[in-house]
Amino acid sequence: MALQTINDLFFSVVDRNSERVMLSRQSGEWKPISSQEIYRNVMGVASALEKWGMKKGDRVAILSENRPEWTIAEFATAVVGGVVVPIYPTQTSEQISYMLRDSGARLIFVSTLDQMKKVREIQDQTALEKSVAMDYLGVNESHPMGRLMQEGPTARDIERDARAKQINGADDLETIIYTSGTTGTPKGAMLTHGNLTSNLQCSLQGTEIGPTDTYISFLPLSHITARHVDYVMLHHGVVVAYCPMIDDLPRTLQEIRPTIMVGVPRVYEKMKAQVQKKAATGLKHVIYKWGLKVGCAHRKEILSDRQPTDWDWRLANKLLYRKLRAAIGGRVKLFISGGAPLGRELGEWYADMGIRIDEGYGLTETSPVIAVNTPNAHKLGTVGIPLSNVEVRIAADGEVLVKGPSIFKGYWNLPDETRNAFDGEWFKTGDIGNIDSEGFLSITDRKKDLIKTSGGKFIAPQPIESMLKSYPLIAEAALLGDRRKFPAVVICPNFPALEEWASSKGLTFANREDLVSKPEVRTLYDGIVAGVNAELAQFEKLKKVLLIPEEFTIASGFLTPTMKLRRRVLEERYRAQIEQLYSEPASKEEVVRTS
Q1: What top-level class would CATH report for the domain 450-592?
Q2: Chain centre to alpha carbon of residue 22
Q3: Average pLDDT value for the chain
Q4: How far apart are alpha carbons 342 and 396 in whole angstroms?
Q5: Which CATH superfamily is domain 7-168 in?
Q6: How far is the CA of 162 from the CAs of 149, 167, 318, 476, in angstroms?
Q7: Is residue 547 a contact partner of residue 521, using CB atoms and an 8 Å limit?
Q8: Rounded to an integer, what distance in angstroms lies between the CA atom of residue 177 and that of residue 99?
Q9: Global pTM?
Q10: Domain 262-446, what fold?
Q11: What is the DSSP code string of 294-309?
């Protein structure tokens, strides 16, 4: 069935009449949610929205972690012709206030009492008229979603269904997604029903998935990547299990044992770090190093989706590789990465561990997928071949341009920003890339992140940052050097690993600031940077290193909710140390303490 709207997706789920569409953990047990229950729940909530006067085009916000009610709220909003405004549950009251005011949302779905408290703080600054609580809060100010769902019809209402199927068209607005804003105020990207459905029907063409598969929805549904993946899974009949809290993911992986794994690079980096930590010493370390060597020799087979048969690979699989797969349930057959660059080194490490990760690429404004590697067309270090329904070309300055039915309508209330986002009919992604002779797209960096030294040399920071982050002792890295004489780097250590290393060396320290100032630690990171420099061109070599005692997190302000680095925030917070770093001679690599 060809989908034109999210309403069509909803009815395709209902018409499938499955007993297991979703899974939800309740009182320690995973409970299935059927097609019939989804129909009742959606129509019950939609009836309440209509009773409250919600009409086509009205904006409805969702402030929640991943859970079945998130998707129910979206489908119910589509049934009445509304426009979904997703909000990250990690965002502050002030950030929430801006998005509610800018979008003019009349109603909001919230998950918990903590989220409701945020809304109550700023409600008088917004146009909100109603709030619906997914948890039962026992307060009069909100309507319990559970009761609304239970009031839905138990049998299909043909007349009601017909109205719901006709209320939206492909060109109608379905959602306003506020970009996380690495440099300034968030912008509301307007995506139509047709944008979303054209993308979800193409992004996994040729990949065999269906009702026998299970997927865990844990990436924030406030982000288009996670929402798109859920759409795709529901469209193909894959059972979707919801994991509201990322801390619960290890347990959920063991309980659900998914067959499909979709994560951002940070998730895959953490899994790698755990393996390296467990194999840091003794016989385990010997087996780990040997297993990587064996895997490297068979990398081509893994990337070609062929199972090696040589005795050494079978032994390494028994001793090492299958233990990594067991940590994620032991059944995953399809690994996908999106949301940010995976990094060639990380992709190679997984291939050497017997796992091929299919990396994809896209943006909020492209609904989101532009290109993705698949089992039938895969090339390590690229983001795959562009989807069949989009056209991609490279501008004279290297920027990736794209056009097609999945390209957004524009930015909400920002006509100038919308015009600036296009070159004629081509959307300007802001990414630098190239397309090889086989049609595979590679992304080398963000156009605005390119560093131009005072000597006129251009440096792409992301590949170098990925090289640095491949070391277990480095959690995050950010290159400096724009309009400077030479490139330098800010490093946030992987503190658990560094603290363990320090203890093994008998180093004592009062706190993390004290730890990163130790000469031994500075020498340690000197060596890591020297190893990376050996693989770089002369003008790319990092002359200075600034170790900081603060982690790159959303809470610290260094990362956006989609885990992208806010470089300006980092450079502003450490301006004094950076100025000191560049005021000193750069005769050799040197780690600068922070104080």
Answers
A1: alpha beta
A2: 21
A3: 92
A4: 26
A5: ANL, N-terminal domain (3.40.50.12780)
A6: 20, 9, 55, 52
A7: yes
A8: 9
A9: 0.85
A10: Rossmann fold (3.40.50)
A11: HHHHTHHHHHTT----
Could you tell me the residue ranges of all domains in the chain?
7-168, 262-446, 450-592
The residue count of the chain comes to: 595
Query: CA–CA separation, 357 vs 574, rounded Å?
Result: 35
Which pLDDT tens digit goes with each residue over 493-541? 999 999 999 999 999 999 999 999 999 999 999 999 999 999 888 889 9
pLDDT tens per residue, range 46-76: 999 999 999 999 999 999 999 999 999 999 9
pLDDT surpasses 60 at 588: no
Query: Per the omega criterion (within 30 degrees of 0), is the bond before 341 cis?
Result: no
* pLDDT per residue as tens digits for the range 186-239: 899 999 999 999 999 999 887 899 999 999 999 999 999 999 999 999 999 999
Task: Tell me whether residue 140 is exposed, middle or buried, using C-beta atoms within 10 angstroms of its C-beta: 0 to 12, 13 to 18, 19 or more.
Answer: exposed
What tokens appear for 324 in the block?
């990594």
Question: Tokens 């997928």 correspond to what residue?
Answer: 369
The predicted structure's pLDDT at residue 139: 65
What does the alpha-carbon distance between residue 365 and residue 195 come to, in Å, rounded to a whole number?
9
- The CA-based dihedral angle spanning residues 85, 89, 92, 95, taken in that order and rounded to the nearest 10 degrees: -20
Token pair 């002359």: residue: 543
SS (H, E, C) 12-29: HHHHHCCCCCEEEEECCE
Report residue 251 as tokens.
Answer: 């347990």
- Whole-angstrom distance, CA of residue 98 vs CA of residue 449: 26
Span of 9-23, 216-230, 294-308, 554-568 with lowest mean pLDDT: 554-568
Q: Which residue has the tokens 């288009």?
A: 224
Q: Would you tell me how many other CB atoms lie within 10 Å of the CB of residue 587?
A: 7
Cβ proximity of 378 and 171 under 8 Å? no
Question: Do the first three CATH levels of 7-168 and 450-592 match, i.e. the same topology?
Answer: no
Q: Identify the three-state secondary structure at position 143.
A: strand
Taking each helix axis from N to C terminus, what angle separates 495-504 and 265-278, rounded to the nearest 10 degrees? 20
